[in-house]
Write a structure and sequence with these properties.
DNA Polymerase III, Chain A, domain 2, mainly beta, about 300 residues, 5-stranded antiparallel sheet, single chain
């Protein structure tokens, strides 16, 4: 394999894989990113067997092929290079990375050792609004527990309905639920589509949603979920389990409301609180002299 690629294009894609590839891994090949050069593009793939990511960027391909490189080390090398074209070529059992007067060689692992990830069925399950999905992820991540023997709490449940979608997370003590409307462009189905997404999947999905625009293509497979975000495909294994019946703890038919008024004062007050029952504002003033306490 031999190709030339712009540093900014390569760095932007490699940066997305840093959260997926683990530094400490019992399977060495999972610390690498798979590169495949074909036509006028170079594609990348990385996975930890739970979450995977595919992406690509434009490149000038002199010789096609595929190989694996250490994701962390490759990223640090590219990051330190100047703003110029980067040449990548196989060289005597390794890979040569060069730019201007810089030259580096890295060892590779066999392409055949890299795990094969599942492919989506091709039929889109739904088109999701990007802004709404980004907001849902941001408002529910905090409620996911990371170290719980109840593995179904180590993720968030995604519920897809014909006219809305919800994301709910809980650690057994707190609960976060976000529901937003959506327009169904396909045949409406009265059944809900539920899946539990791992915490790491939500984190990587949030990063992908932070840039760009356009809708997100969502596909549900037998054991995996696929999110196509701006040409980048996030692949996630579903958590197999029964999510808690969170609907039971959410009050229904509550017709009471609480009103608060902002305290308006010409001088700042140490503490201002509003009494909603009386619709008045009371200000707490500290004593003019310090209070001394004596113990008997």
């Amino acid at each position: 394999m031999e190709l030339v690629v712009r540093k900014n294009d390569l760095l932007r894609e490699l940066q997305l894989f840093q959260g997926i590839v683990e530094r400490k891994n019992t399977i060495p090949i999972l610390a690498n990113v798979l590169m495949e050069a074909k036509g006028d593009q170079v594609s990348f793939l990385a996975t930890d067997l739970e979450v995977g990511l595919r992406s690509k960027c434009q490149a000038t391909i002199a010789k096609g092929g595929s190989l694996t490189l250490p994701a962390k080390k490759f990223f640090e090398i590219v990051k330190s290079l100047p703003e110029t074209d980067i040449r990548i070529a196989e060289d005597k059992g390794g890979v040569k990375v060069a730019a201007d007067r810089f030259d580096s060689r890295m060892q590779t692992l066999p392409r055949e050792d890299f795990p094969t990830l599942p492919e989506s069925s091709g039929a889109a399950s739904a088109q999701l609004p990007r802004a709404a999905l980004k907001e849902m992820v941001a408002k529910t991540q905090f409620a996911i527990t990371g170290e719980d023997t109840r593995f179904f709490l180590n993720g968030a449940q995604f519920v897809l309905r014909p006219d809305s979608m919800s994301l709910v997370a809980t650690d057994g003590h707190r609960l976060a639920l976000v529901t937003v409307p959506r327009e169904s462009k396909g045949k409406k189905d009265s059944e809900e589509n539920k899946a539990i997404l791992p915490k790491k999947t939500l984190g990587e999905l949030g990063r992908l949603l932070s840039e760009g625009d356009g809708e997100v293509t969502y596909v549900r497979g037998e054991n995996h979920l696929f999110f196509d975000v701006g040409g980048r495909l996030l692949i996630s294994r579903m958590i197999d389990g029964q999510f808690p019946a969170y609907e039971r703890v959410i009050p229904k038919g509550n017709d009471s409301a609480r009103r608060r008024r902002r305290c308006r004062s010409s001088t700042p007050a140490p503490r201002c609180r509003s009494a909603s029952t009386r619709n008045t504002c009371s200000t707490f003033s500290p004593p003019s002299r310090p209070i001394s306490c004596r113990s008997s």
